[in-house]
Amino acid sequence: MRIIAHVDMDAFFAAIEQRDNPRLKGKPVIIGGSRHRPRGVVSTCSYEARKYGVHSAMPLAQAVRLCPHGIFLPGNMAKYRQVSAELQQIFASFTDLYEPVSIDEAYLDLTDRYREYSSLWQLGLALKKAIRDQLDLTASVGIAATKSAAKMGSTLHKPDGLTIILPEDFDRIIGPLPVRSLHGVGAKTAERLENLGIRTVLDIRRFGRKAMISHFGKLGDWIYNLSCGIDPRPVEPRQTRKSVGRETTFDSDLNDEAEIKKTLKELAADVSRRLQAHHLWGETITLKLRDPDFTTTTHSLSVNYGINSADEISQAALVLLDRAWASIEPNRRKPLRLVGISVSNLSENRQLNLFTPPRESKVDRLLVDLNQQFGKGVITTGHLSPHDKRS
Ligand SMILES: [Mg+2]
After folding, report:
1. From ligand 1's centre to the CA of 377, what distance in Å?
2. Catalytic residue among 17, 105, 312, 348
3. What is the pLDDT, as a whole number, of residue 234?
4. 293, 333, 284: which is closest to 313 by C-alpha?
5. ∠153-100-115 over CA atoms, to 5°?
6. 198-247, pLDDT tens digit by residue?
7. CB within 8 Å of 122: residues ≥ 6 apart
8. 243-384 to CATH, choices 3.40.50.300, 3.30.1490.100, 3.40.50.1910, 1.10.579.10
9. In 3-state terms, what secondary structure has residue 34?
10. How far is the CA of 328 from the centre of ligand 1 (A)?
11. 48 catalytic per annotation
């Protein structure tokens, strides 16, 4: 049997702010923006704020109405990332086999370690104690034989919870939970299940594998397995990816601006698809251009939040192209042999994007940012020598 722990920090951003500013302790702290310009959504809020019905992803304006005396803070991603890095060091002290799933959550495969403790309970307490002692923060931990059960366990007794789910206890603990708590059951699937009279995990089992497959196909098979405590997904330590990029060499050197821009949009869509497949966001976009004589130039820009949509990436690439061409008269431009786009400064931090106001177009905001950057000269232009091996 494998032993997997799922660690989920409690109200991570808000707890860090309360830790670092004693005046915030015991108060409803809401991270995501200002009370006076409540345009975004709540990123995290303290448990004191949750009592008023405030929760993550709620529009800030609504949070202000529910909790008018709340303390609204914009948040400090650089600090939260730093704490997240310290948290990963703690995980690493328990096992090499840890898989961060977001800035404040990770799976740890402790199969080779748990015998060093007198019980799984003691192992869980040791993990929580290390986090509390070293970071002065609390975590909720679930320990089970599968990722899915461990994750469900960590949500059961928040905050500061510890839940052990042995296979023999699976039916008793997980069985009565709503179908929504299973990995892969979203709002739509939950609604369809409920229309079939299936409300709990045990209901799925009673419904049976065949019926689940006939109604939901492969997803039905997957959900049925989870309802039985079967989840073969291993804990996969993250290989740090430095950048995600795509480039293309034209069949013949290209001078057609529309065609070049069309190609950049296609490359951006491809890069976006790959970033999203790996749940990655990047803060630096680089455009690479190569002349027929193999002179290669790169042009980069950075924003202080993660982007990964095709629109954002292509918009950034087009801005960089305009920038690269700005000083050259159109009739003196050399044709291009190759164009490429890459995105770097990657993180898996989904929460970053919660800071984005929901109604404002992210692309518009990106353009505003980029124009400001032009003024400050943040966009950098690099030159690589001909036949550069890095290309
Ligand atoms: Mg959390």
Report:
1. 37
2. 105
3. 92
4. 284
5. 60
6. 999 999 999 999 999 999 999 999 999 999 999 999 998 876 667 899 98
7. none
8. 3.30.1490.100
9. coil
10. 50
11. no
